[in-house]
Amino acid sequence: MINTTIPNTLLQLINGGESISVEFKESHKALNKDVYDTVCSFSNRNGGHIFLGVKNNSEIIGIEEDCIEKIKKQFVETINNTSKMYPPLYLTPVMYEIDGKKILYIYVPESNEVCRCAGKIWDRNEDADIDITNHADEVYRLYSRKRGCYFVNKVTRFGLEDLRPDLIERARRMTRYRDQNHPWFSMSDEEMLRSSNLILKDDYEQIEGVTYAGILLFGKDSTIMSILPQHKTDAIFRVVNVDRYDDRDVVITNLIESYDRLMAFGKKHLNDTFHLEGIQSVSARDHILREIISNLLVHRDFSSSYVPKLIIEKNNIITENGNLSHGYGALNPKSFEPVSKNPPIAKVFREIGLADELGSGMRNTYKYTRMYSGKEPVFVEGDVFRITIPLPDIATATVGPEGHSEGQNVPHDVPHDVPHDEVKESILKMIMDNPKITRKEIGEKLGISAKTVGRKISEMKNVVYDGSGNNGQWKIISNDK
């Protein structure tokens, strides 16, 4: 039976062209063989719409009437053939007539299982079907999306001795901001971690230990790097030297101190304008940074090798992180349905006051961005999750005496001539040449503050100061950096 009236929603999809959820196949006389790849990729991603009898440019050419039933039969038989499509899919093409031309429409829902076509795994990216069969990382992320499992719940063989007691105690103290009688104060370190699902048992491996989430939150830096060598966050300030950067901090440490470092970086480079909320003065800048930085740290895909970034430019703040996508495209705050990406990490961040309930971050970001710049932020969901915060001109305006670059201040915490990732090597070389060199002398040579030198040295586990005051000297206890 021919349905002569095609819904306006489907016409709008055709007019909108191919996308991550819309595909056209000419199939004028015969079914395009790659239609099954598209069915598989839609099933593995977020579902989608296939139109047979439509060219790539949205031109409706129709299907020859004598071929319609043959194409429908071939399609239905093939997708129910487990040797071709697994698991089999039960889809029915629907026929419509547009301007005297007949087309077939197929809706492919998202599957709760990973779909294979002729033994291959296909995924959707923009308007293309991608064979990811031999891409282990992509396949892993696909299975993670389907199973609803969390990478950060993976159990390690590390125990409490591999964590930092000072960080656990700091987290306890931070709960006072919300609850003076928080349960963590009556718990031991182990009880606190178990209550937060940071110590779990792996029934398959028959081991019990601290999870990836526990290591990321409270682990020593060496422990974190042993399980996630790709873990880092890149903070970049790029206003004058737009081809490279004016300031940079590569943050490689636990998530709590990563939050501190990124907040300090943002406050250093963004002016805090005056705003009132009712009769109370508020820092819109700080509220924005809190929301986007906690999102960057908590909701990233930690299995991804994509380097998360906090980028401050003249007109925007941009955050980017690898993401287990549950949708694609710009998010609408009115219809957005939040999905928890790393629940155990999010729980700890909420308990210590660095994040709020799921979904409130977007609302707060909209609220304070409007207050800060008079514009709205943009959230884009995909395999890379991006937030763009528009900035007013005053946000990155330079104050104080002019520096060395086109009237801009030279950042006082960044070496003028030494790239960021070589700072520690430069410090180490100076100490080797002169064990009695002071932090101030090192800072003057590198163009950074003595305080920053001290922080860098504290991160270098092979450098210690033996003695006290002017009578002491630096010692290098190993060749490891």
How many distinct helices? 15
Strand content of the residues, in percent?
15-25%
Spatial strand arrangement across the major sheet: 12-11-15-16-19-18-17
Mean pLDDT: 86
Q: Give unreliable regions as ranges.
A: 399-421
Q: Could you estimate the helical fraction of the residues in percent?
A: 25-40%
Structural class call reads alpha+beta
User: What form results from the Cα inertia axes?
Assistant: elongated
DSSP E strands, number:
21
For the sheet with most strands, the description reads: 7 strands, mixed
N- and C-termini, Cα separation: 73 Å
Specify Rg, calculated over alpha carbons: 28 Å
Topology:
Blueprint: H1 8-16, E1 22-25, H2 35-44, E2 48-52, H3 65-79, E3 85-86, E4 94-98, E5 101-108, E6 116-117, E7 120-125, E8 128-131, H4 136-147, H5 165-174, H6 189-195, E9 199-202, E10 207-210, H7 212-218, H8 221-227, E11 233-238, E12 247-251, H9 255-269, E13 275-277, E14 280-282, H10 284-298, E15 309-313, E16 316-322, E17 329-330, H11 343-351, H12 360-373, E18 378-381, E19 384-390, H13 423-433, H14 439-446, H15 450-458, E20 463-466, E21 473-476
Parallel strand pairs: 1-2, 11-15
Antiparallel strand pairs: 2-5, 3-6, 4-5, 6-7, 7-8, 9-10, 11-12, 13-14, 15-16, 16-19, 17-18, 18-19, 20-21
